[in-house]
Specification:
CATH class of the largest domain: Alpha Beta
Structural class: alpha+beta
CATH topology of the largest domain: H-NOX domain
Order of helices and strands: HHHHHHHEEHEEH
Largest sheet: 4 strands, antiparallel
Shape: globular
Strand content: 5-15%
Amino acid sequence: MHGLVNRSLQCFLRDTYGADLWDAVARRAGIAPDGFEAMQVYDDALTGAVLDAAAQQLAKPPEALLEDLGAYLVSLEPLRRLLRFGGVGYADFLHSLDDLQGRAQLALPDLGLPALRLVAEPDGRFALHLEGGGPCCCGAAPASAAMAQLAPPVLAGVLRAMADDYGALALIDLPDPPAGPGARVIHIDLLQARYAKGRRFHLGLPVAEVAS
């Protein structure tokens, strides 16, 4: 597993639940409190150990924690900005997800995100297929089995958080994983594209950020 994934999980747990919780998770998972380096590669089992330890400490299902991780990632302004460049509305953002794997792999060839394929259905419904076994369009390695398992709930959390960011009303449904190998599908029901006032977003950085 790419260290950026593990580091993101570590930062989410520490920032959301506090340093004491992270220390307890690290002890339970058998790793040092300093945790992970973002640019290293770790055994997939270590990622699972951290996730299981966090789920036990918090008495929360691992998949629910991963959805919360997805929402946490959207709260990070650099990533939020990258996602908002996908379009001016939530539907535009959804259509931009087809290119997400390729863009991520250009920057981080070892990340191993699953391929994403959006299918538009009638009445504002969409089906986002996550296909974990195929090669990336840019020739990088296919997603590992562990990444293919982690990605769907994280992405579901991202989709929910981005709907709020755009001010859209959307229902996100992540069915149970298939019994055998195969793609997972996230169902998105866009009920109202402009349901509430979304968060402010400017193409250019605020003056204060540019000056710093």
